[in-house]
Design goal:
Distance between the termini: 55 Å
Number of domains: 1
CATH topology: Aminopeptidase
CATH class: Alpha Beta
CATH superfamily: Gcn5-related N-acetyltransferase (GNAT)
Radius of gyration: 18 Å
Helix content: 25-40%
CATH architecture: 3-Layer(aba) Sandwich
Shape: globular
Strand content: 15-25%
Oligomer: single chain
Number of helices: 5
Largest sheet: 5 strands, mixed
Strand order of the largest sheet: 1-2-3-4-5
Number of strands: 5
Amino acid sequence: MNIGFRQAEPRDTVCIHELLFHLGYSTPWEKVCQAFATLLQNPEYLCLLAVLDSNGQVVGMMTLRTTTCLRLAGPQVSIEELVVHPDWRGQGIGHALMAHALEHARTCGAIRLEVLTSENRLSTQRGFYEKVGFRRADSRVYRLDFFQATHEAPNNTRQSTLKISGDSL
């Protein structure tokens, strides 16, 4: 089995949608199309695909986002999505994608390469990220979800439940 790697293109939308499903997201087709088109136009993002050399089948995907962080005084690369099709897991494709992430981070002079992942993901439970050199950070993630990807976008009348008081800032 020979695997090649290439940047994603608009023609890859169907594969991207399928891989997101295997990552656990049931994002509607129309929303994936819109988000993927936007991502491809944004120079902060790189969407890399793992492709079988024999027939061009896409078997994995990784999305990287590079931003300049004031707290680091330089660039940080974040792995936004990383997924290998279930039929191809356990064959080193995830490790190869991570090697590309590391090379990309080095090439753009990143100070940090990070990934946020769920404790419930099998890859996290198996220690995948530690095996490829990551260490667990002493951080927490907090978020406000305004709508879920499986629902329609909020209309202008929907209000956030965010509570801000003057003494809490």
